[in-house]
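agent: user wants the full assembly modeled, not chains individually. Plan: 1) parse entity lines 2) check alphabet per entity 3) run joint structure prediction 4) return tokens. Steps 1-2 passed, two entities, 527 residues total. Proceeding.
--- entities ---
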Amino acid sequence: MANTMNVLLAGFGGQGILFTGKVMVYAALMEDKNLSWLPSYGPEMRGGTCNCSVVISDEAVGSPLVTNPDVLIAMNRPSLEKFVGTVVPGGTILVDSSTVDIKVERTDVTVYYVPATKLADENGLKGLANIILLGKLYKEKGFVKEESLDAGLQKCIPPKKAAMLDFNRKALKLGMEQ
Amino acid sequence: MSEKVLMKGNEALGEAALRAGCRHFFGYPITPQTELSAYLSKKMPKVGGTFLQAESEIAAINMVLGAAGSGVRAMTSSSSPGISLKSEGVSYIAGSDVPALIINVQRGGPGLGSIQPSQSDYWQATKALGHGDFQLFVLAPSTVQEMADFVALAFETAEKYRMPAMILSDGMLGQMMEPVVFPNETEIHEGDKSWAACGHKNARKHNVVNSLYIEAKDLEKTVVERYERYEKVKANEQRSESYLTEDADIVIVAFGASSRVSRSAVNAARAKGIKAGLFRPITLWPYPETELEKIVPTAKKFLVVEMNMGQMIEDVKLVVGGRKPVEFFGRTGGIIPTPGEILEAIEKM
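--- prediction returned ---
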């Protein structure tokens, strides 16, 4: 079977859900993998929540819509509640435990609780909880090379915001240490 | 080889339009095609083109008629309800033998429907986008790369046969990002425009671009002449892709977004030992009858997969002609089927 990773990133608008997905697919692009990125643009977006489907694969991507993720990144409670049941058995869930006050009850998935928002605030990286979680995902799943991830960051941060690159790199490292 | 870039399907359509030499865009905003207009609103002025947000869809399509009637490459884009509004103008464009490009990034219908991806405008695009005897050349991309590649093809074909062309996309293809490669230089092959109603400083007799014929015999003559051209389109322009169909017992027929999901389902079925294959029409009009016909003798059953209640299935049945069973699986209203659902439908056959 082809090596495919289906990722669903979910949270509130403004938490950098779409951005995180973009960094992932740009990193995959660096390695010439097949990939897709699909934002939610429908009614759910208008309710303030936001999610993004990312597929990285060795074979041509079929559906870019991830309905049964191998990896779920949940940055708020409604997202975890909504999608926890959709993760494939044996899948991985990353939870921002500083914004989500519930635990995953399933025993057939691996769950990592990272207080990403708190860590970001304490380390002068406000607003970069998403990248901390991405660092943690990299540590656990290593879906691309580290230099590809860095190149992905460089692609997604416009040159006029170059100062942000260092903060994002710090956040990525911090996530990898969790 | 140029660089692979990541783009939304809607943006790729816009970039491809610029590269195809289109300098006239007339539109009216609607989800989920907005990124296409947004892209061109930024880029078109930089290349000296005209980007115009009209006061309505009806105004926009008539601006396309006027601009294209003067011989330039002109286009419009919208999503399902907006396309319905443009239908009168599309009929006028066809009746005036004017080449132009209309892009439909489909959403759920009927009525205002939903803003989620759908394929429920298949009949509208292929059978009756407006009143009168006419056809559009209809291309159905299934990747962001094809969104980019089909723009120039649509313009060239439209010009070759003097007819409107449509790219029938959907919200999924429009909103998703995927790698896309644009050639370093796009050669522009523009068709003959000696019919165009444009300035010529009295160098020739003036041209008329018009769809009104008071005398019935005159109208019949032009319509019959147009249908002779349509026969050439049918003979020359059918396009399709076959995937694992040679030894397939069950052949899925699907286009655009649903063909991508179907391809995953075919792979999953093969992994379970079921001989499944996929036939993907790329031109929806002309329908790729010739290639589909080749599969009919060897396939045992056909499964048509669409994001609607079953529209293209009628064209499949016309080709299959009762020789093999043709079944249907669809989701509608803006729901994208999952590979698992399609696999289940295959297993039930």
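agent: reporting back. Chain B has two domains: 4-236, 241-348. Chain B has a mean pLDDT of 97.
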